[in-house]
Write a structure and sequence with these properties.
Blueprint: H1 9-21, H2 29-36, H3 40-43, H4 46-56, H5 74-83, H6 85-90, H7 105-118, H8 133-138, H9 145-178, H10 188-193, H11 195-206, H12 223-235, H13 242-248, H14 252-255, H15 260-284, H16 304-327, H17 331-334, H18 355-363, H19 367-371, H20 379-388, H21 412-421, H22 429-433
């Protein structure tokens, strides 16, 4: 029996919008399946529809519910819209037209700026202080005190929640990088352009296993991976956004379908994230108190959780960088430049690091110093140090599987794409690519 449902373009946009909002919120396959089951690209394919219906039934048990993750800070936004409904109706300011199906921090920040203007608050006003009667008279506020104070409290809560949400988004972004995916590089416009590409990105984002061959868990073939493989076969017969798919699913079969400009941009994007992580390490290193020989935290109250998220993201990013260089036929580049790993911090109750790995980490220069040009490190240095410590570099993820193929000649288009996305301080690497 065919379960296909006719949906109009407005409904498709609403579904894709909800899926885009779930990208950085650690959504599960069940959430993605519930959002996507009504898309024409799914409802018109019986195999996909059966699988998405099965997974969406894990979330919905006989009753419909609103699309998940439609809106960050949804309840606060609804409260603010109810209180400011007369101002919203009477204004022509585009900042006030924030639809409930709209996602993204920029749109919400514009809406908050509109609300602050309606409260007649000056730029730079601190929400720890609420205007008293004299200050309201100076601001020419004619509303009753209890009405103004209620609006003030709602906007204050919205501002504080927004600050927390942006911090969480940063953590989610690095956790996604730790799974081998550059979700933060995907724009809303690109995601909304193509249903099939958006579906591949959403399923890949829900898959917690890394897509890189050097990090795949052996013997585990998840439902996420089965859906990804099925969707990839369908992508071969359609015009899809391969550069966007490569950001979350950078396997050889996808990279082979990119042109040189797109390949260079993809490599530069990963290098850009490595540069940002190196800056995070430099900012946090002075606040970390640990034993340099064991990386055991020696002072209570240290936020080692954030450091470990950065470390996971860094290690996944460098593996992805090596994997891409290998897939693109540029293994010779790694022999001249490659930072090492960043080890996680540990506490008394956690599993301690292997002494051999600690020996490698202590001998190699710190990765953030390699990134800012203060130290030199190559793939050969890493392999040699691991051999001296009697440690297998591939099993310990200091290196990854590199394809034994003849290095390709890098084109001018590749260099151009690399320069467009690579960090400015690492543009000197473009000379080594040639």
């Amino acid at each position: 029996m065919k379960h296909s449902v006719e949906v109009n373009s407005q409904e498709v946009s609403k579904i894709l919008n909800a899926m885009y909002g779930e990208l950085l919120s650690q959504s599960s396959l069940t959430t993605v399946a519930y959002c996507a089951k009504k898309l024409p690209v799914v409802s018109g394919d019986q195999w996909l529809l059966d699988h998405f219906l099965r997974w969406s039934s894990c979330v919905v048990t006989g009753c419909e519910r609103p699309l998940p993750g439609i809106f960050p800070l949804k309840s606060q936004i609804i409260s603010a819209r109810d209180l400011f409904k007369s101002e919203i109706r009477s204004t022509s300011d585009s900042r006030a037209l924030l639809a409930i199906g709209e996602n993204g921090t920029k749109q919400i920040e514009k809406f908050i700026a509109f609300l602050i203007d309606e409260l007649y608050l000056l730029p730079g006003f601190h929400f720890s202080h609420r205007p008293n009667r004299e200050e309201r008279q100076q601001l020419k506020i004619t509303e009753k005190r209890h009405v103004y104070n209620r609006k003030f409290r709602v906007v204050k809560r919205l501002v504080l929640k927004m600050e927390k949400y942006k911090k969480k988004q940063e953590i989610w972004k690095y956790q996604a990088i730790g799974s081998g995916r550059l979700l933060n590089c995907i724009t809303h416009e690109e995601f909304m352009r193509d249903q099939l590409s958006a579906l591949v990105v959403a399923i890949a984002a829900s898959n917690k296993n890394s897509p890189h061959e050097g990090l795949r868990w052996s013997g585990q073939y998840t439902d996420d991976q089965a859906l990804l493989d099925a969707l990839f076969v369908r992508c071969l017969n359609h015009q899809v956004n391969w550069p966007m798919i490569a950001l979350v699913y950078p396997v050889k079969e996808v990279i082979d379908r990119l042109d040189d400009l797109e390949r260079g941009a993809l490599l530069g994007n990963w290098l850009q994230e490595m540069a940002r992580l190196a800056m995070e390490f430099e900012m946090h290193i002075d606040a970390i108190h640990c034993n340099p020989d064991t990386l055991l935290v020696t002072k209570k109250g240290i936020d080692f959780y954030t450091w470990n998220i950065f470390a996971n993201a860094w290690n996944a990013a460098r593996i992805a960088f090596m994997h891409l260089c290998s897939t693109m036929g540029m293994t010779a580049f790694l022999s001249g430049w490659m930072p090492g790993k960043v080890l996680r911090l540990v506490t008394d109750g956690m599993r301690q690091h292997d002494a051999r790995e600690l020996a490698v980490y202590s001998k190699l220069p710190r990765p953030w110093k390699v990134m800012n040009g203060m130290a030199e490190c190559t793939l050969g240095d890493i392999e040699q140090t691991c051999m001296e410590a009697n440690l297998n570099p591939m099993l310990a993820n200091w290196t990854t599987y590199l394809r034994l193929s003849e290095d390709r000649r890098v084109s001018s288009d590749f260099i151009m794409g690399f320069k467009l996305t690579a960090p400015t301080e690492l543009l000197f690497l473009s000379e080594r690519l040639q």
